[in-house]
């Protein structure tokens, strides 16, 4: 299996990358990002690409892949809707539209979030934008497309969040996250479980396109 990963310098993307490089079914990983990944591996290749809205000049490098695990994302805090729409919707669809032309049999996985608004009409800005992104990805025509809505995530294998507020929570309140996991095991996933679930969408498939924490946990086994 040949896999593309975006956002591999972030918490979720790094977790997915580590599972992919460890997995026997994954032969090659292409990490696409604005900055280099801080690891080396025999399976790992990198494509440094600054403009995610235009991949026309790098199309040759994107052909022949079985899956794309799109883990790149930004917080909506402090952003106007037009800015968040560009960074979330435009950049995601920019790559996805190129990939579906080159690899129509590809599985495309997108990391969204709990609370995403599939109606695109709710009051919460980020949820509307994520909802439109999900909806339009599902319409593109990939062989398979899955929208991951993981909710609370536990970083494993030494992974740190690049968002200071999130890392502060992990540093000082991880006991609360683990307590939530104990009392509500289907509400919390780890970066390892996310990575394994993404790989298994390609190997096993899944009957639902929108994956909530309980679906992610089931797929990770």
Describe, in short, the structure shown:
This protein is α/β, with parallel strands linked by helices.
What does this structure look like?
Strand 5, helix 3 and strand 6 form a beta-alpha-beta unit. A seven-stranded parallel beta sheet has the order 3-2-1-4-5-6-9, sandwiched between helices. The chain contains six helices and nine strands; from the N terminus they run βαβββαβαββαβαβα. With 221 residues, it is an alpha/beta fold. It has one domain: Rossmann fold, CATH 3.40.50.720. Helix 1 crosses helix 5, helix 2 packs parallel to helix 3 and helix 5 crosses helix 6. The protein is globular.
Search tags:
single chain, 221 residues, alpha/beta, Rossmann fold, seven-stranded parallel sheet, two-stranded parallel ribbon, 6 helices, 9 strands, 40% helix
Protein topology:
Blueprint: E1 2-6, H1 11-22, E2 28-33, E3 44-48, E4 67-70, H2 81-102, E5 107-111, H3 125-139, E6 144-148, E7 152-154, H4 164-183, E8 188-190, H5 191-203, E9 210-211, H6 213-219
Parallel strand pairs: 1-2, 1-4, 2-3, 4-5, 5-6, 6-9, 7-8
Helix pairs in contact: 1-5, 2-3, 5-6
């Amino acid at each position: 299996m040949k896999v593309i990963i975006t956002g591999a310098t972030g918490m979720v993307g790094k977790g997915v990358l580590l599972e992919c490089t460890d997995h026997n079914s994954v032969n090659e990983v292409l990490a696409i990002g604005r900055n280099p990944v801080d690891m080396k591996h025999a399976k790992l290749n990198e494509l440094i690409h600054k403009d995610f809205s235009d991949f026309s000049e790098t199309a040759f490098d994107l052909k022949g892949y079985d899956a794309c695990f799109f883990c790149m994302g930004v917080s909506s805090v402090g952003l106007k809707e037009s800015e968040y729409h560009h960074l979330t919707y435009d950049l995601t669809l920019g790559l996805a539209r190129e990939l579906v032309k080159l690899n129509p049999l590809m599985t495309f996985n997108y990391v969204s979030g709990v609370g995403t608004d599939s109606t695109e009409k709710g009051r919460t800005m980020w949820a509307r934008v994520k909802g439109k992104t999900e909806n339009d990805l599902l319409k593109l025509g990939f062989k398979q497309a899955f929208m991951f809505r993981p909710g609370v995530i536990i970083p494993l294998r030494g992974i740190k969040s690049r968002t200071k507020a999130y890392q502060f929570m992990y540093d000082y309140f991880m006991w609360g996250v683990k307590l939530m996991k104990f009392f509500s095991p289907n509400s919390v996933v780890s970066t390892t479980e996310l990575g394994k679930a993404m790989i298994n969408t390609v190997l096993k498939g899944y009957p639902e396109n929108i994956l909530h924490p309980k679906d992610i946990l089931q797929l990770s086994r």
